[in-house]
Amino acid sequence: MFVEEVTKWYKINKRDLPWRDTKNAYIIWLSEIILQQTRVEQGLPYFHKFLERYKSVTEFADASEDEILKLWQGLGYYSRARNMHATAKIIKNEHNGVFPCNYETLLKLKGVGEYTAAAISSFSANEKHAVVDGNVYRLLSRYFGIETAIDSTIGKKEFKKLAYELLEQAEPFLYNQAVMEFGAIQCKPSSPNCANCPLRLNCYAYQHEMVDKLPVKDKRTKVKERFFNYLVVKDGTKVLLNKRIAKDIWQNMYDFPLIETAERLTESELIQSSHFEKFKKNTKLYIKSVSDEKKHVLSHQIIYARFWEIRMENTLLDEFNGVFWVNEDEIDQYAVPKIVDNYLKKF
DNA sequence: AAGCCGGGGCA
DNA sequence: TGCCCAGGCTT
C-alpha cells in the first residue's frame, strides 16, 4: 500500500531533474555528492557547472584541487570536493576510468557512504539497495509512527531495516527516487502538505496529530564562538593571501593572514596584543581602516570577523606559514570561504 | 557514540 | 532564533 501510493504519487508529481534521465554513474555520483546536506535548488547550478567543466571522471581526475575547490566555492562542506578529487583519481587509475555501479565497490570510495552507494547503484544499475536519507527518515517515521531517534545507532538500524523491507516489493530505481521526492515535496519538514496527501488515512503521525513531532532527533550541535581578525595586507597592487592547511574549517581554501582570539578584543586591545606585536615587528605598518564586525554563522560555529586593511612594507612572511603575495586582480582565481568572498565584493 | 564539516532557506 | 537540507569522516 505504502510503496504503491508513493510510487503513484511520484509518477504524477515528480520534478524534472537533470540527473534523473541518465544511467551514467559518473553523472549520478556528481549529483549525489553535490546534494549531500544540500537542497536541490542550491545544488542545481553547481551540478551544471561541474558537468560542463568535467565531462568524464577522467577529466575530473586530471583537474587541480585548486580548480575544483574554486568551482565548489559557496556550496559548503568542502571535504566533499576534496574527496571527489581523490575518488576520481582512483577510478581513473584503478578502474580504467569506468565509474563503478556496484554497491560494495562504491562503498569503498572516499566520500561515498551507505546512502550514496545505494543511490548510485540503484539509479545506474537498478541494484536492490534502499536509500535512507533525511527525506526517508522523515517520511517513514511519520507514516509508521516510529519515535526512535533518527540520529541514534539503534534508530539508524531500525529505519534501514524497514527501508530494505519496503524495497523488497518495489522497483529499486523507481521507488528510491519516489520516497525521496515524496519526502522533499509532500512530506516536508515544516508545514507538510497533509491536506492533499494520498497517505493521510494510513499515516500514523497525521492520525495522531504528531506530524510536527516526528521524526525525533536527540542530538543538537553545540555552537562554538570564534573571533577572527583578518589582516588584509597590501603593498601596491599586491595582497597577502593565506592557504588554510590546518585541520579546520575551509581546509585547502584561501583567506588572509589571520589572528584568531578566544575572546572578543577591542581594536586597541588587539593592537596591543602579542599577536599583533609579533606581526608588525621590524616592519612599517599603517592601519588604513578596520571593518565592522561581520557575523558568519556555520552549522557548528559562529565566527565574528573583522577585516583590518593594512599597508605594509617589508613583511615578515615567516611569521605566518602558508602566506604569499598575489596581485589584486588574481584573487578571484582562488577558492575562498563565503565570508571572505563577501568582503572581496567590496574590495 | 560524539564531534566535526558550510551555506542557505524557512517559519 | 532554531531546524533542516538526496551525509560522511574522524576521534
Automatic annotation (TrEMBL):
Residues 34-185 form the HhH-GPD domain. Its EC number is 3.2.2.31. Binds 1 [4Fe-4S] cluster. The keyword Cytoplasm does not apply. GO terms for molecular function: 4 iron, 4 sulfur cluster binding; 8-oxo-7,8-dihydroguanine DNA N-glycosylase activity; adenine/guanine mispair binding; metal ion binding; oxidized purine DNA binding; purine-specific mismatch base pair DNA N-glycosylase activity. It comes from the Bacteria. Coiled coil: none annotated. It catalyses: Hydrolyzes free adenine bases from 7,8-dihydro-8-oxoguanine:adenine mismatched double-stranded DNA, leaving an apurinic site. Keywords: 4Fe-4S, DNA damage, DNA repair, Glycosidase, Hydrolase, Iron, Iron-sulfur, Metal-binding. Pfam families: HHH, HhH-GPD, NUDIX_4. Its cofactor is [4Fe-4S] cluster. The keyword DNA repair applies. InterPro entries: A/G_AdeGlyc_MutY, DNA_glycosylase, HhH-GPD_domain, HhH_base_excis_C, HhH_motif, MIG/MutY, MutY_C, NUDIX_hydrolase-like_dom_sf. One of its GO terms (biological process) is base-excision repair. CDD domains: ENDO3c (cd00056), NUDIX_DNA_Glycosylase_C-MutY (cd03431). Adenine glycosylase active on G-A mispairs. MutY also corrects error-prone DNA synthesis past GO lesions which are due to the oxidatively damaged form of guanine: 7,8-dihydro-8-oxoguanine (8-oxo-dGTP). NCBIfam families: mutY. Belongs to the Nth/MutY family. This is Adenine DNA glycosylase. The lineage of its organism: Bacteria, Pseudomonadati, Bacteroidota, Sphingobacteriia, Sphingobacteriales.
